[in-house]
Amino acid sequence: MCKIFIADTFLYDILTPLFYISNIGIVMIEIINSGGVTSAQGFSAGATYAGLKTQSDTLDLGVILSESMANVAATFTTNSIESPSVSVSRKRLLSGTALGVVANSGCANCSVGEQGFADAEEMTELAAGFLGGTSDDYFVASTGMIGVELPMALIRQNLNNISLDSNGGSDFAKSIMTTDTKSKERAVSFMFEGKTITVGGAAKGVGMIHPNMATMLCFITTDADVEQAFLQECLSEAVSSSFNMIDVDGDQSTNDMVLVLANGSSNTSKIDKKSDAAPMLIESLQYVCVELAKELVRDGEGAQRLIEVTVEGAVDLTEARTAARSIASSLLVKSMVHGGDPNWGRIVMALGKSGISIIENSIDIYINSIHIVHNGTAIPYFSDAVISAMAEETVEFKVSLSNGQFSATAWGCDLTEEYVVFNSAYST
């Protein structure tokens, strides 16, 4: 089953393909099975093992290339300490265009002094020398250990070993993984002016994940011709309702980046906010971002269950998002889910500490559709049924505030012993 969503509210469930009702009628968005960052026309990608990771069979250096100059949009970490790779990419965004990105795993290139800036710049210079164009045409992204300099000798030696291919998206997705147990890819398409437009992406991140980005990288491509300011607007909103609505452990990385490239290879008319295709582009980008965001928390370090929290009936969208994030990121709620304990008081606690407008005697709570709280107090329910429901791979909380018309959904994962053990010896 697939879910169609608009403005943080799931409307209905249907089988693929997805049907979207817009002001231009009923249109169709199709999910591309096994699709990813090179599903869109005019993009190629590849990766190699350069030696940044200790495992010799692991890809750790990758590139994405557009066959023509693409309009670009991006969002970055809000951590006040950021990797020079992020800083250099912020600078690249000012032009509004790019040919591609070079990315590495195994090293965050953060807190290494001025050398980090020199290395990030050199990464883009190496990419230009290998792929064409100038260094200003390439973004750079890094992920891995903080406080470790990029091994530039290895990167110089191995970047040219990358074989670019229109089917190379999966290798690229693997090359950006750190503690991820699996790569994360999604793609969808829709018709516009009788031609197919595709939006595809790849992401990584399973720890140091908290709203306002996370320790994550995400790269999205589309063959649509999209006006740059509108592309940035679409991406910012998609990130607000996806990557900024997830939590694994409450920590926020120094290296976060979400990047989208739009190269126009579909040969359709330019899409701006007034275009007939605008709703379909928005929905496609939103779908890819939300699905990738859910994959990040589903693969959270040590995680066994995905937590989905929907808060409805809030006075505005900001309060709905704040409340949903507060519940999804609560360590007590995460522990409750891990133990299969229907201790709804922890949900109420997390809701109350969020600081939003609440009328306590108007709150209703559901766990996997089982109604357990009405008007702020417990109602009779079959405890074993709730416990059984909480053993499922996805545990859904719905909180109704009855205080307004706005809703939002956030995602988290349970907190397990494996998370603590893993992160107690991360560098050793």
Strand content: 25-35%
Helix and strand content put the structural class at alpha+beta
Element-level helix/strand string = EEEEEEHEHEHHEEEHEHEHHHEEEHEEH
Q: What is the CATH architecture term of the largest domain?
A: 4-Layer Sandwich
Per the CATH scheme, the topology name of the largest domain is: L-amino peptidase D-ALA esterase/amidase
Overall shape: it is globular
Average residue pLDDT: 88
Largest sheet: 10 strands, mixed
* Count of runs of 4 or more consecutive helical residues: 11
Q: Report the span from N to C terminus.
A: 42 Å
Tally of individual domains: 2
Low-confidence region ranges: 1-16, 20-24
Give the tally of β-strands.
18
Output the CATH homologous superfamily of the largest domain. L-amino peptidase D-ALA esterase/amidase
Rg, please?
22 Å
Query: Which class of the largest domain in CATH terms?
Result: Alpha Beta
What labels describe this entry?
single chain; 428 residues; alpha+beta; L-amino peptidase D-ALA esterase/amidase; Ubiquitin-like (UB roll); 2 domains; ten-stranded mixed β-sheet; six-stranded mixed β-sheet; 18 strands; 30% strand; disordered N terminus
